[in-house]
Specification:
This protein is mainly α and 189 residues long. It has ten helices and no strands.
Amino acid sequence: MSRIKPHTHEQHVYVGEKLARKNGHRNWLLDDDERLQQYYFEGLNHNKIAELLDRSPASVRKRVSRKGYTRSPRYQRFTTIEDMYIKRHYGIQTTIEIAETLQKTVGSIRDHAIKVLGLKRRYLGENSPSSTISDEDVELIRLLADEGLTGAEISRKMEVSKTHVYALINFTRRMNGLPDRIYDILEYQ
């Protein structure tokens, strides 16, 4: 049984070009590609380029697509300063406001915040649509708890449910991240 030898890339290209010529097609030469690139980035449309290169508009469109040419601006990466701005304001300002400030699209801000920066899709503190009390009231509840009042007493005085008060006292629900002071366990040994 004879085995067919594998062909090299050059052999595949040669056979492909030969078949293209046999079927009446013209191959794109290096000079054609250079002129195509020049005309395309000068802003000429496909029909005009096709006329100048003596090719069909469909052939020009296909070659432009294969080469990856585009006149629209490519995705612009976020700078470190923009990342810091998004981290600081996401959840406090709307994505529309952040997008206007950074001159980016709302979708790009939202995607970058969630997928790249790992931010959650929610507002914090009194900016939250489900917020029932202000940020100052949250701090007051925590201060009252530090001074020795029970959750039930605070709940009656502030007219807030006990479960909400206990969640705030125990930092289950956080207003803006971690408390100001994080205690080191080794300090108390």
